């Protein structure tokens, strides 16, 4: 299969693949790697030939607080409220009536009630196993900026990575 048949016509591969080329610089943070690409762009370097690769991916779970019945009820009510509001608005668009505002309000309250009930039930079942809230992220330990072999030395010179 040729390279043309495996691309979308915009220079991007149809299926995800690891870019090939030479590493011109390695950074500890994504922001620093992004600044390096910005530096190359300002120097009119063909950045279409540049990739940033995250190396050694690590799963990080950041604990954001404790979980209680009150917090479970509040977050459930809030998410249910938004869902109820959405469906209320959707239904009033499909069949408008004189009491549109009342219908939207009722749908939002019903959604909040169901959300609160559901979240409290889930919290009750999982209470002893998990009494905290957290956010899960996948983070790389380092970020490499790479480009094609023909352009690697020019990129290193522009970034001061001799």
Describe the protein in words.
By secondary structure, the chain is an alpha+beta fold. It has two domains: 22-62 and 141-159, HD domain like (Alpha-Beta Plaits, 2-Layer Sandwich), CATH 3.30.70.1370; 68-130. It has helices spanning 30-42, 69-94, 100-126, 152-159; strands at 22-27, 50-66, 132-147. It has a three-stranded antiparallel sheet with strand order 1-3-2. The longest helix has 27 residues, at 100-126. 15% of the residues are buried. This is General stress protein 17M-like domain-containing protein.
Sum this structure up briefly.
This protein has 162 residues and is of the alpha+beta class. The protein contains four helices and three strands; from the N terminus they run E-H-E-H-H-E-H.
Task: Give a quick set of tags describing it.
162 residues; elongated; 2 domains; 3 strands; disordered N terminus; 4 helices; three-stranded antiparallel sheet; General stress protein 17M-like domain-containing protein; transmembrane helix; single chain; transmembrane; Alpha-Beta Plaits; alpha+beta
